[in-house]
Amino acid sequence: MSTEAPPSTPLRPLLLAAVSASDDRLRILEGLPEFGWRVMTASNGNEIPALVAQHAPDALLVDAEMADLASGSIRLLPMLRVALVAPGDSETALTLLRALRINACLNLPLQVELLAASLDGLLRLSKPSIADESNLSTPRAGEDMGVWLLSVTTWTLAAPGAAPLQLTQSETRFLAKLAENPGAPVPRPQMIAALGHNIDYYDSRRLDTLVSRLRLKVNRDSCQSLPVRSIHSVGYAFVAQIVLDD
To answer: Which of 242, 235, 240, 34 is closest to 142 using CA atoms?
Structure first.
């Protein structure tokens, strides 16, 4: 009888996005998981060293403002370092590349797909064994990202290895509907009905706002990305294991 432990599934790479514009942080948080990345965010450059020490991300993304706030520590961080700069601002780009030892600069405005492809390529150069063996650039529906726990009685959600997070009633109903069939998309009309609204009188942008705020809340409190995918022209799907506690 073999005593060897079964091989573990490699985690998808983790990005620490320290970007001053809240809209860009949200786009990264929502968009990069579609391309195989986990994301945690920092809204202040001073948070970067502590988050790096605690979570050991594979890559750091900063803009010029955040880089300036954390300049003393960025040079020493043992990870891939990428910066966002304004187009044509060669002076800032050179400062970041030379003085702060940034590995690469990308031009604003932010393009999530280009960012993902650039991070994949740079990660393959810096960590070829990790990037190649785990096929990190390919998103996997239903990929095992740990078990999430949702309680509809206490309105709480617990990320893998994290303390329960208090939810609103609408957030709980949203996640409970997705948890009925993890990995399968729930059409927007069904989700709106589950929230207790009439599809004929409901502004669907309210649903998108609910999801965006929930993503930010989960990321802020657990430093993990909520595994909810937006399915274009359909609705939303929960793509990790989730246990529903009635």
So the answer is: 240
pLDDT tens per residue across span 49-94: 888 888 888 899 999 888 888 766 777 777 888 999 999 899 999 9
Same domain, 233 and 165: yes
Residue-number span of the structural domain to which 19 is assigned: 14-133
Give the chain's domain count.
2
In this prediction, residue 73 carries a pLDDT of 73
- The answer to whether the beta carbons of residues 202 and 192 sit under 8 Å apart is yes
Which of 133, 158, 186 is the C-terminal boundary of a domain? 133
Is residue 108 located within the same domain as residue 188? Answer: no
Q: Answer left, alpha or beta for residue 101, where phi above 0 means left and psi between -120 and 50 means alpha.
A: left
The pLDDT of residue 154:
95
CA distance 35 to 130: 16
Question: Cβ atoms within 10 A of the Cβ of 124, count?
Answer: 15
